[in-house]
Amino acid sequence: MKIIHKPRIMSGLSCKIKMQHKTIGLVPTMGALHEGHLSLIRRARKDNDYVVVSIFVNPTQFSPKEDLKKYPRPLKQDMRLCKKEGVDIIFYPSVEMMYPKDYKTYIKVSKLDEVLCGKFRPGHFQGVTTVVAKLFNIVSADNAYFGQKDAQQAIIIQKMVIDLNIPVRIKITPTVREKDGLAMSSRNAYLNQKERKEAVVLYQALKLAGRLIKQGNKNSADIIKRMQYLILTKKSAKIQYLAIVDTQDLRLVSRIKEKILIALAVSIGKTRLIDNITVVP
Question: What is the pTM (predicted TM-score) of this model?
Fold first, then answer.
């Protein structure tokens, strides 16, 4: 397994791989790898000749009030996990390598980045799309892997790839959950024991919504009201948003007729968590 720090060296190696008519699968991460990331790596390993995992805590997707400095960076553990899963290359650039002095270029996917999480984290998705586009250019991946847990991110990246004619296939894999249903996330480590138990209510609320829809309830407002009631039975929970939206353009759906995305962002204590499911009525 190789560790590469410089974009130009990574690009050069990718070029050599492509000249051999081999495929490259990219798993973009910010490190602190967990089973969710490992599921992406395993899928990439199955699909491609070479697997590249990028580890880069991207400063442009954090607001000044967010936890950039506190974000976990267990690099040695991440390297061990990658090696165990058969990763060929870890791309681990510095901030200076990705955003050199006087950097001025950013990518924005309009409208899609202004709803759900984007409404409460202005500039977040601009940072995400910019760094992901840079990774696509540097690594020249044939396939790139993202988790359904970050559904809005995945939809935005898919749109960016289409609009900018980037020659990479986006593969979305199912959300990986703990045994009690909590979606795996690096942020789960911030929860204390009591908060960790209460955080399960997020998935319980999503399952409740799914059952109501399957039973014939098509009224989004009523479903959200019931989700809200359940979540607020937990004292540590503070709802940022609950939404039922279209799976393509993320517009709010008031009357459920087709496949929809039910998404939420809830703070458990001081830790902001997101989750979602898709439902076909």
Answer: 0.96
